[in-house]
Amino acid sequence: MAPRNKYSVILPTYNERKNLPIIVWLLNDSFTKNGFEYEIIIVDDASPDNTAEIARQLQTAFPNRIILKQRSGKLGLGTAYVHGLQFATGNFVIIMDADFSHHPKFIPDMIRVQSTKDYDIVTGTRYSGKHGGVYGWDLKRKLVSKGANIFADTVLRPGVSDLTGSFRLYKKDVLEKVITKVQSKGYVFQMELMVLAKAMGYSVAEVPISFVDRVYGESKLGSSEIAEYATGVLSLWMRV
Amino acid sequence: MTRAQQTVSIGLLFASTQLYLALFLQLIPLPSIISEEIIPVLPLWALVSFGSYLLAKLGYGVLTFNDVPEAHAELMKEIDLAREDLRTKGVEVD
């Protein structure tokens, strides 16, 4: 029998005191129901709301499942993944948002799809499938999202329908190799990761996911975010 | 993009520019209606068509953008369930 797969979920947190226990609960529920081995690595950027305290309570509630790594300040999402990756003991890594916009119930789907053809990466897509889609987006938000995706798709032609999505399963060694080459931060980070992985010849599969927009708190999308995104796509275009 | 694809695309680009230039400079004889009325506006036509294609794709994409209210309803129920269970496990939840 092949050695058992283990899945490491990296959750970067900043002021997620409310969300963290529930997402951990949902993750545990989804993994244990399906009999998968897992661990959760929480990378907390010194949240003022003391997210770390909640994380320690969770360590007691879910023994041997949760690794807490604290950093001294808000150092950003990209470096949080690099940091968390050092402590991952699984052979697969899952990256997702900690705010319920990504539901752990899709992880078993991703794992099943991954095993069909031993894919290097499985990415969630909001743009296809019966269960794929969004909740809580108005027409403007959909227009901007779709427009941004078509723009990136036309310029970069990655062959992936949801380039900016951030709910993904990676083989750990693949993520380790790709992440060292990523230069951008923020919105562009996920996109660059995918475009680089594709350029390096890794295989990618897609799974439809539903995206429930921030249940607590606001997600921001203004003209400065759009400008940041556009320059990010173009700089990637020059590089790959 | 592989090297082979790159070579083919550069070749195609070069060949089509040459062909267009030959047509534009009327080096290849064509009826005057084609060479005077159609050939000069061909690049503009291509640009507008490409733009329309992208706009149509955008419109279609937004129209078929799925809404998943049931995913939200399900999540809300699960959050309540999680809260109750977490309290019994000694985790603070608001």
UniProtKB/TrEMBL annotation, chain A:
<feature type="domain" description="Glycosyltransferase 2-like">
    <location>
        <begin position="8"/>
        <end position="178"/>
    </location>
</feature>
<keyword id="KW-0464">Manganese</keyword>
<dbReference type="GO" id="GO:0005789">
    <property type="term" value="C:endoplasmic reticulum membrane"/>
</dbReference>
<protein>
    <recommendedName>
        <fullName>Dolichol-phosphate mannosyltransferase subunit 1</fullName>
        <ecNumber>2.4.1.83</ecNumber>
    </recommendedName>
</protein>
<keyword id="KW-0460">Magnesium</keyword>
<keyword id="KW-0808">Transferase</keyword>
<keyword id="KW-0256">Endoplasmic reticulum</keyword>
<comment type="subunit">
    <text>Component of the dolichol-phosphate mannose (DPM) synthase complex.</text>
</comment>
<dbReference type="InterPro" id="IPR001173">
    <property type="entry name" value="Glyco_trans_2-like"/>
</dbReference>
<comment type="pathway">
    <text>Protein modification; protein glycosylation.</text>
</comment>
<keyword id="KW-0328">Glycosyltransferase</keyword>
<dbReference type="GO" id="GO:0004582">
    <property type="term" value="F:dolichyl-phosphate beta-D-mannosyltransferase activity"/>
</dbReference>
<dbReference type="GO" id="GO:0046872">
    <property type="term" value="F:metal ion binding"/>
</dbReference>
<comment type="similarity">
    <text>Belongs to the glycosyltransferase 2 family.</text>
</comment>
<keyword id="KW-0479">Metal-binding</keyword>
<dbReference type="Pfam" id="PF00535">
    <property type="entry name" value="Glycos_transf_2"/>
</dbReference>
<comment type="function">
    <text>Transfers mannose from GDP-mannose to dolichol monophosphate to form dolichol phosphate mannose (Dol-P-Man) which is the mannosyl donor in pathways leading to N-glycosylation, glycosyl phosphatidylinositol membrane anchoring, and O-mannosylation of proteins.</text>
</comment>
<dbReference type="GO" id="GO:0006488">
    <property type="term" value="P:dolichol-linked oligosaccharide biosynthetic process"/>
</dbReference>
<dbReference type="GO" id="GO:0006506">
    <property type="term" value="P:GPI anchor biosynthetic process"/>
</dbReference>
<dbReference type="GO" id="GO:0006066">
    <property type="term" value="P:alcohol metabolic process"/>
</dbReference>
<dbReference type="GO" id="GO:0006720">
    <property type="term" value="P:isoprenoid metabolic process"/>
</dbReference>
<dbReference type="InterPro" id="IPR029044">
    <property type="entry name" value="Nucleotide-diphossugar_trans"/>
</dbReference>
UniProtKB/TrEMBL annotation, chain B:
<comment type="function">
    <text>Stabilizer subunit of the dolichol-phosphate mannose (DPM) synthase complex; tethers catalytic subunit to the ER.</text>
</comment>
<feature type="transmembrane region" description="Helical">
    <location>
        <begin position="12"/>
        <end position="32"/>
    </location>
</feature>
<keyword id="KW-0472">Membrane</keyword>
<protein>
    <recommendedName>
        <fullName>Dolichol-phosphate mannosyltransferase subunit 3</fullName>
    </recommendedName>
</protein>
<dbReference type="Pfam" id="PF08285">
    <property type="entry name" value="DPM3"/>
</dbReference>
<keyword id="KW-0808">Transferase</keyword>
<comment type="similarity">
    <text>Belongs to the DPM3 family.</text>
</comment>
<feature type="transmembrane region" description="Helical">
    <location>
        <begin position="38"/>
        <end position="56"/>
    </location>
</feature>
<dbReference type="GO" id="GO:0016757">
    <property type="term" value="F:glycosyltransferase activity"/>
</dbReference>
<keyword id="KW-1133">Transmembrane helix</keyword>
<keyword id="KW-0328">Glycosyltransferase</keyword>
<dbReference type="GO" id="GO:0033185">
    <property type="term" value="C:dolichol-phosphate-mannose synthase complex"/>
</dbReference>
<comment type="subunit">
    <text>Component of the dolichol-phosphate mannose (DPM) synthase complex.</text>
</comment>
<keyword id="KW-0812">Transmembrane</keyword>
<dbReference type="InterPro" id="IPR013174">
    <property type="entry name" value="DPM3"/>
</dbReference>
<dbReference type="GO" id="GO:0005789">
    <property type="term" value="C:endoplasmic reticulum membrane"/>
</dbReference>
<dbReference type="GO" id="GO:0006506">
    <property type="term" value="P:GPI anchor biosynthetic process"/>
</dbReference>
<comment type="pathway">
    <text>Protein modification; protein glycosylation.</text>
</comment>
<keyword id="KW-0256">Endoplasmic reticulum</keyword>
